[in-house]
Amino acid sequence: MTTTFDLNDDSLVVIIGSGAGGGTLANELAQKGIKSVVLEAGKRFKMDDIENDEWKMFGKISWLDKRYVEGPARLAKDFPNLPAWIVKGVGGATVHWAGVAMRFQEHEFKMKTLNGVIPGANVLDWPVTLKEMEPYYVKAELKMGVCGTEATGMPYHRKSSHYQVVAEGAKRIGANCEQAKLAINTEVRDGRPACQVAGFCMQGCKIGAKWSTMYTEIPKAEATGNVEVRPQSMVLRIEHDKTGKVTGVLYADKDGNQQLQKARLVAVAGNSIESPRMLLNSASSLFPDGLANGSGQVGQNYMTHTTGGVYAEFEKPVHMYKSTVVPGIVKEWQNNDPSRGHVAGYELEILHLGLPFMSAFMKPGKGGWGRELADSLANYDNMAGFWICGEDMAVESNNITLHPTEKDQYGLPVPVVYKTDHINDTRMRNHAYDRSKELFDSIGALKVNNLPPYPASHNMGTNRMSEHARDGVVNRWGQSHEISNLFVSDGSQFTSSGTENPTLTIVALAIRQADYIAEQMKKQLI
Amino acid sequence: MNKNKTAVPSPNLSRRRFLARSTVAAVGAGALGSALLSPAAWAASAIGDHASTTLLRMARDVFPHDSLEDKYYAQVMSPLAEQAAKDSDLQTLLKDGVAALDEQAKKRFGKVYLEVATEADRVTILKALQDSPFFQKIKGDLMMGIYNNQELWPRFGYGGSAWEKGGYVNRGFDENDWIEGV
Lengths: 526, 182
What we know:
The structure holds two protein chains of two kinds. Chain A has twelve helices and 17 strands.
């Protein structure tokens, strides 16, 4: 089971990252008999490492390597070093996610066709349609065990108090609220238990009821003998030959020694900050602006979701912490209806924060103190609320660049993340704040608190898919337009962000990509 | 605190809010503050009597929870002051920070921070200094010490870790007596 491959074995696929994209791709290829090495920058955590403790787990699993956030948005002031709240460890962000597994809507694949040119944005249609994605969504739902879907037949979770409060508010203002489709078992399935409703989905599911590549795809892949996972392996650069084909990956191992793993094919899946960073760091005389960057689009069009939070206080207890993190979703405004004053849609995802995180995010930044905040926190048990999750416009200048002088512990230039709102994001967020207040007022809220955005867990774009090479980085299979044996397998290949949480789509794309890679390898095309 | 139903009867929300906005609150805070005027030996030895009592007063102004006993604020300030006895940078940060508070207080109200009677006035002083490393250090430590203090979670109605009890699936996750089932 502990397969070890030779560094000079150039028949291997090298996958960089072990989260939703990389972990899934490794297992899909392994099941087809294709051998791969997975390079993961973070450690390998055990189930025992998972604790139901917000700050401890934040400190333990988060990607906290030095990064800068720039831009005029408030986020850059509140969290100057933390643009993204993701995981450095085997399993990647699938350790940290809430399990929300929704398909993109049809219109979200063709935002440009639908809305035309949007000034200040760099919107593009996906080179893929929902119809083409559907069979892969079914496979992804089956793999992950998504409740409330035809694919699994697994029932929804029962309705928590938190769900009931928000759903009643939605009902009273005529808005549609549905239980969330979650990749969290409601029955024993696939060797994993049913959910206990402990409420710590985002800190890592202690019992493994939630799908995470940490304990699903990765061990399954390893069990085939076709996969070797190398934790604490930070990629320094991707090498290529004089014809422009990638040939291997240079990385720093756990002892800080540099190793070069040869490869027949490289798949990049390090999340939307690290993935373009690797390509930019791999610049050479043949690719002076970075690998796969002939279009200049590597690192550009960084998208999160248009976010914010709304937490209302009531007279009576909600005890929102007694729930899956996301028990339901208000979907009323998920469509593209420009008459609202903004294009694209948003969802209100019922989401609880524990008291420690609530104290940090309710009024983040230097001014987050004082009696008003303390009074709200004193009312913690009577709070209900949600996270606003809306489509973020692709904006070319929202991007990942390399710091000109500062290096990190691996000797790599520190990434600089520039992210600010497009006017559409601002309008959408304000629309969401207004509708949220109506929703909560309808059930007697004593106070409604608007929370500003906090660091994104949903990171997309930066290596986007495009029909034409000039507009993006990869084609409809996540394959570099320029380098046929270089693939992107994570959310950085998203052309638009949609309003849905990205994980199910990342997994569906990885399954689809594995089929393509296998077929192309068989035909000796890569 | 909503869950503080045993020791100190908690006023309901609207009353608490009313108190917060009225001069009565200032009297209440002042009365609580008087208990802080006997500094613990640790703090006095590390940063002096005046600085230690000022810090405790400040702590209650940063995250004011009138029904929380002084000891919970002291529990946060205590290790900080102890550390300051060994860490000269921290000692300077705290001493200079208190001096800055007093200077602002004198400029605005003609007296030191501790003698400024109303919370609203003390908040004005704190706001003027809120961007300083001193203020942010105290705020950060308090945030962790109050809201990340497991001993206090029941007072806020927060359950914390639950997997060891089998989660909430059989412990009231769907109980709600004020919303009709939807």
